[in-house]
Design brief:
Rossmann fold; 11 strands; two-stranded antiparallel sheet; 9 helices; single chain; 42% helix
Length: 241
């Protein structure tokens, strides 16, 4: 049985491609390199990670799903020998979600022996309420056979609303039985760990590439090792992964 990891969130610029890249690296480090697919029709950030061998597949024609290309996506999933990681853009979030549900794709994948794991991200700052709403919307739309992983990204600010953290909010409390894991992206000091991590992401480099790069200082590489360890430690504890 393969696990189909799909990163979905209607808000742009909240870290979906980062999550896809980190997840792909983690899976590869376990010894099973996943099939990586970038379906973002606007910003093919995930495809930029050459070390991950990401395939680009634009499943959109304007604002509509191109059914033939979507069929190609399902064929790739069906024949995959291991896990699949699919990054999706904000601009295609609504039509793709609708298409997946209306065509009963989660049930189809289950019947094929696969497990659909939906990863979504909640971030702080101005996008907090939008991303929380996106999470609640996804859980309400997708059937029970789908598993959810929530990534908390504090890059834009603390993930709190009216003094409550994510796990205290109504959106989570109402849907917590559907959430198999919560991954907390660490709060990184802007001038050190944060800058190093951001520069690595902008260069579309994996942790291993950046840590091995002699162009970076010894302390930069050390800080990236720490960030990698902090994130991977949480992924190790997420049984669904």
């Amino acid at each position: 049985m393969a696990k189909i990891h799909m990163i979905l969130q209607g808000k742009g610029g909240v870290g979906k491609s980062m999550i896809a890249a980190v997840l792909a690296q983690y899976k590869a480090e376990l010894g099973t390199a996943p099939l990586c697919i970038d379906t973002d029709p606007v910003n093919a950030t995930f495809e930029g990670y050459k070390a991950l061998g990401v395939q680009r597949l634009n499943i959109m024609d304007g604002d509509e799903i191109n059914t033939r290309r979507f069929d190609d996506l399902i064929e790739k999933i069906a024949t995959a020998k291991g896990d699949v990681i699919i990054d999706n853009g904000a601009s295609s979030f609504v039509p793709l979600s609708h298409y997946l549900i209306s065509n009963q794709v989660p049930t189809l994948l289950k019947d094929m022996g696969h497990e659909l794991v939906v990863h979504t991200v909640v971030t702080g700052g101005q996008a907090l309420l939008d991303t929380i709403s996106g999470f609640a919307q996804l859980v309400s739309q997708f059937p029970e056979e789908c598993t959810f992983v929530v990534w908390l990204n504090p890059y834009w600010g603390a993930i709190q609303h009216e003094g409550k953290g994510f796990e205290q909010l109504k959106a989570y409390q109402t849907n917590k039985t559907r959430v198999s894991a919560i991954v907390q992206i660490p709060v990184l000091k802007e001038e050190t760990h944060g800058r190093d991590f951001s520069e690595m992401l902008q260069a579309r480099e994996t942790f291993d590439e950046a840590i091995a790069s002699e162009a970076r200082s010894i302390m930069t590489r050390q800080r990236l090792k720490i960030v990698k360890s902090q994130i991977y430690g949480q992924l190790e504890n997420a049984a669904v992964l």
